[in-house]
Fold this sequence. Notes:
- By secondary structure, the protein is mainly alpha-helical.
- α1 packs across α4.
- The chain has helices at residues 12-27, 31-80, 83-100, 113-129, 154-168, 180-198, 203-223, 226-231, 244-253, 256-260, 268-283, 297-333.
Amino acid sequence: MKELGLDFGWGPTAFMQWSLEHVHVLLGTPWWVSLGLTAVAVRLCLFRFYVGASDNAGRLATIKPHIQDIQARLETAKQTRDMPAMMRSTQELRGVYAAAGIKMWKNFLPLLQVPLGFGIFRLTRTIATLPLPGLEDGGTLWFRDLTVVDPYFILPMITGTATFYLFKMGGETGGAVWPPALFKIFQWGMPIISAVVMSFWPAAMQLSFAISSLLSLGQTYLFKQPWFRDILRIHPLPPPAPPPSEQHIKAMIIPTTARTKPAEPEAPVQGLIGRVSTTLKKYAPDTQPSLSGGRTKAQVAEAKRYEERRTRQIQRERYEAEEERRRKRHVSKR
């Protein structure tokens, strides 16, 4: 391609150019096959990152009921600009994440697909505009010419449909939890926008993004399967919550003694981490080394430091409260 003046220097576009050219030359495949194989190769290179993000999503979805109170207190502290409360809630959340084996940085690694996606977008647009020799008849079926738009708009419709079901199934990790309002926007808005915008692209671009969308959909389907998660030792997804009507019925049939029985007193930090540990082991008793004797030294140390900080903080707050009561009693005696 460089002989034709295509030189993107260094960056994601240059990397995608190198990948596509080597696939096409070494395998001798038609351009439509080369585009598909390049998309598959990129997906395989990033697959390990998606596994880590999916494991995080499964763990986070499992412990979500236990951290909602901390998140609510953190949000309230942010709104009221209460820095001490914000720091306490943040420390609590970090401690629970460490005990649950959640590493938030893993959620950002799949974003490497963004610059690579931009690179293939820029590359396919350029080679279709030239056009690159062999691209006019490098297609197949109804899209023989990869330099013009799909005459039947089937490729954009494939991309839009795959995007719709991708969001419906929980994103590319298979376990994303969307806020209701945001979920509707993404599930309906993104497929429509992507299908309309792609309708004006050359078939080379349409084909590349359609294949990527189908690969994402297939990956999401696999991440939703318990047997697949078990093979890769990914934390299982918790069962979906029952509808509000079922929850109300279950609450009504709980015996009165069970509802009115006072809760056992427990230490705030140890109690929460214990409940998180029990919940995770309930869904994956054999695949949770982070909460058993096989925890890494870093995780054990982080959890221990967090518990020590919280214990000191609780003791200090109790001491300050006791001192305040003594001061008030002394003032009242006067």
